[in-house]
Recover the amino acids of this structure.
């Protein structure tokens, strides 16, 4: 089966700042900062620092940790290489762990299963490669929600700090002198 290439979307800093300042939306968003030594001088409030040099062995942990988030936004300094690369690797690992595009995912409501349609019946109908599991109807929708969106912060931290570096609600540990040469 042909594997599809994930599409990366760019999120403007203004959009991310609005999400982070919103009480309800901020709980549904995770920001992943993949800068290495250039992490010094500030970071987006509530971001998770995962240096790109450690990303590969931390991906399974990230997928589990971020499973309930609706949006995951990756960035590095400029979001030209490390940020987009990390986002793509995360998406592939997430799809591998949670059953991505190369598998058919089927949820069988327990009520339907009790009425005679078993997980085995479904597996036989859609193929052996299918991931089939029994779930509680609406409870499953609440847990899984919509498909998680993965974004890359447009312009990275460099553009972010130009606009929001001094905003204590959005940026922590900001050191403007470090960014004056960018």
């Amino acid at each position: 089966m042909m594997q599809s290439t994930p599409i990366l979307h760019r999120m403007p800093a203004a959009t991310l700042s609005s999400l982070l300042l919103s009480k309800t939306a901020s709980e549904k968003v995770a920001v992943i900062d993949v800068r290495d030594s250039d992490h010094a001088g500030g970071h987006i409030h509530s971001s998770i620092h995962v240096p790109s040099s450690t990303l590969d062995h931390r991906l399974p942990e990230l997928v589990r940790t971020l499973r309930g988030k609706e949006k995951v936004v990756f960035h590095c300094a400029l979001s030209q290489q490390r940020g987009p690369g990390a986002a793509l690797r995360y998406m592939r690992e997430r799809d591998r762990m949670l059953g991505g595009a190369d598998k058919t995912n089927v949820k069988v409501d327990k009520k339907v299963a009790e009425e005679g349609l078993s997980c085995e019946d479904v597996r036989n109908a859609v193929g052996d490669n299918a991931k089939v599991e029994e779930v509680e109807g609406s409870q499953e929708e609440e847990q899984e929600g919509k498909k998680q969106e993965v974004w890359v912060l447009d312009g990275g931290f460099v553009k972010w700090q130009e606009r929001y570096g001094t905003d204590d609600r959005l940026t922590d540990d900001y050191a403007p002198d470090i960014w004056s040469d960018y």
Residues 38 and 95 are 30 Å apart (CA to CA). The first strand starts at residue 9 and ends at 11. The beta strands are 9-11, 29-33, 43-44, 48-49, 71-75, 105-109, 131-135, 149-153, 171-172. Confidence is low (pLDDT under 50) at residues 101-109, 137-145.
